[in-house]
Design brief:
Blueprint: E1 2-3, H1 16-19, H2 29-39, H3 43-49, E2 50-54, H4 61-66, E3 72-74, E4 77-83, E5 94-95, E6 100-101, H5 109-113, E7 116-120, H6 128-131, E8 132-136, H7 138-143, H8 156-185, H9 193-201
Antiparallel strand pairs: 1-8, 2-4, 3-4, 5-6, 7-8
């Protein structure tokens, strides 16, 4: 990750972040609810666009600590939740012909913040300008064409406010998943992906 005070960035709709085969868009439960409501999806339709990607190898504590979203217990094992991809490896909702996102107004937070991520400094004040840092992701450095010297300097206040909201959302999401996993461990719920989606659909904001 790279951190500095004045990033230069403007999305040029190159589509690199939407079509990279090795990038999966993480979804929080609020992302899923926003997409469901925006597209008026049924449970079965949600299952067609929300992916539960199973971890192939066991997760150690160091790896778990690096995850943006905690792993979820499912009937097939630990998984992470992300948008499904099409047969070409592009995001399900990316219109390749017109180079645009089909759900832009309700897109996941992962997409809203790319190519940046955010980190709180617990030793600083509550002021966003000193407590929250804007960081450039490795993927952003690798292929985001909107990061260049000719792009305008980003508005730090706007990005910091977005970052604070996203980190709060991730915190709520982590609590939900950890609670789910705890109930699975105590055998109080059946760890199916359908049950998980039913649970979050029933959440009232």
């Amino acid at each position: 990750m790279v951190s500095k005070d004045n990033f230069k960035f403007e999305c040029i709709r190159c589509g690199n972040c939407c079509t990279d085969k090795n990038t999966i868009v993480n979804l929080s439960y609020t992302d899923i609810l926003r997409i469901k409501k925006g597209l008026n999806l049924t449970l079965e339709e949600l299952l067609e666009i929300v992916g539960f990607y199973i971890y192939a190898d066991p997760l150690n504590e160091e790896t778990r600590a690096q995850l943006v979203i905690p792993p979820l217990e499912t009937e097939k094992g630990l998984s992470f939740i992300g948008l499904m991809k099409n047969s070409n490896g592009a995001c399900f909702f990316y219109d390749i012909k017109n180079k645009k996102c089909l759900i832009y107004s309700i897109r996941p937070n992962f997409c809203r913040t790319f190519p940046f991520t955010f980190k709180f400094n617990p030793n600083k004040s509550k002021n966003l300008n000193t407590n929250l840092k804007i960081l450039l992701t490795e993927k952003g450095k690798k292929y985001c064409l909107g990061l260049n010297d000719d792009a305008p300097t980003i508005n730090n206040a706007i990005w910091l406010n977005l970052g604070a909201k996203v980190l709060e959302d991730l915190s709520k999401n982590a609590k939900l998943i950890n609670r789910w996993n705890s109930l699975v461990k105590s055998k109080k719920i059946i760890p199916s992906v359908k049950n998980f989606l039913l649970k979050i659909i029933g959440i009232k904001d």
